[in-house]
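QA checklist item 7 of 12: single-chain prediction sanity check.
[x] sequence parsed
[x] length recorded as 450
[x] structure emitted
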Amino acid sequence: MRISIIIILFFSCAMQKHACAQGFSGAQNYALNRPGVVMVKTVFSANVYVNKMRMDMRIFYKLLDSIQRADTAGAIFSAEQKLNIVLKTMYDNPARFFKRTPDNIEQTQEITATGTGFFITGDGYVATNCHLIDRENSFIRRQFILTAFRQITQANIDALESSWAAKFTDQQKALLYDTYASVYSRLFPMTLNGLKKSIYVVYRKDTTNGDSTQTKAANIIIKGNPMPGKDVAILKIDADSNLPVLKLANDELPRVGDQLYVYGYPGPVTNNDFVSAESAIEPTLTTGIVSAIKKSVHGWPVIQMDANINHGSSGGPVCNNKGEVVGLTTFGSLENSGGLAAGLNFSIPVSILNEFADSAGIEPDISTATELFSKGLQSFDKHYYGEALKFFKKVIRLNPGYPTIYQNMKECETRIANREDEGSSGLKYIFIGIGLFLFLWAFFGFNKKN
């Protein structure tokens, strides 16, 4: 009898093999958390003003005459050499050749900074990094003026090529670029007016006809300070109560060596010319381990990890093998060359995020739709496709645009049509257990009689 009980318990555990599994695979982690990862866009707009310039043609013609005299005196120059002399002379003394006019050039400029965030509640609270939405005004002004300078300078170079009927080499264009840089920095400084900032959250929203993106304006609820401060911000968009949400881990720090899954929108991928714009909303998943637990210069902990990140990944969730968020990707390490050092990156632990959520009276929690979606994925992984389909249909009733939901439903229907559904396999183990019990009972009963 004892043997039969042990065998039944064994098969009972086999029925729960997925529940007893230790952690998610990378594919399972992505399937669960990908819907709640969002892109954060901060759009700065302003008007840049600068005086129009004109070339002092009297000085310019004197330069041409001097070159011509040297040419007739026996110093034979090619057309390219003559052009080089003109450009070099202008570069050496730009104030002689360029004069201010009373008219202004007005350039309306827009600069967009992108990063990553994730939903922490079903009604639209988003966690991200502070530095994505809180750039210093001096930095933004420099970026605006630099962008305007490049556009205006390119227009000036194009105009010179047209009026001189010349085609500048790359070296000549670089020399002219430096010339105009000197002119605009010393003679005609640019000014900036009407600086404005708008923050948007971009996330995937599915339809029966395919996936699309939703862009919503966001308000800053609470924020810290960029590193070395507590580089955390919480945003809010207007939404219903069943957006996809990532579950936060407890405040305990992960252990060195623990597996990590990192989500983000790295710039080299998002801005890649060979990747379609439609797929830009799909986050990139990189993996690694906890390399060390360090302290910031202000004494609070940061998680060092070897998962690859890049500009644009900031603010993204760092998840453990249970799919829970343990931190926010925040900063990397610089090489001597100024580039990011691969595999030496840091995240702010979830305990810091919880500090800000508590201060703002926000209670991070997964939505009902996310809970049902998670159950659907669990059933799908067990090959219980009919059961999974029921959960996914419940999700749609709560949020018809839940990311990846129609794709998952279609996969379930395909597997069911192919007779791959093992939803009743739990009964199989019960019947096997009962059969073994009866067999052993009969066997031991027979031996006992004999």
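[x] summary fact logged: The first helix runs from residue 2 to 15.
[ ] second reviewer sign-off
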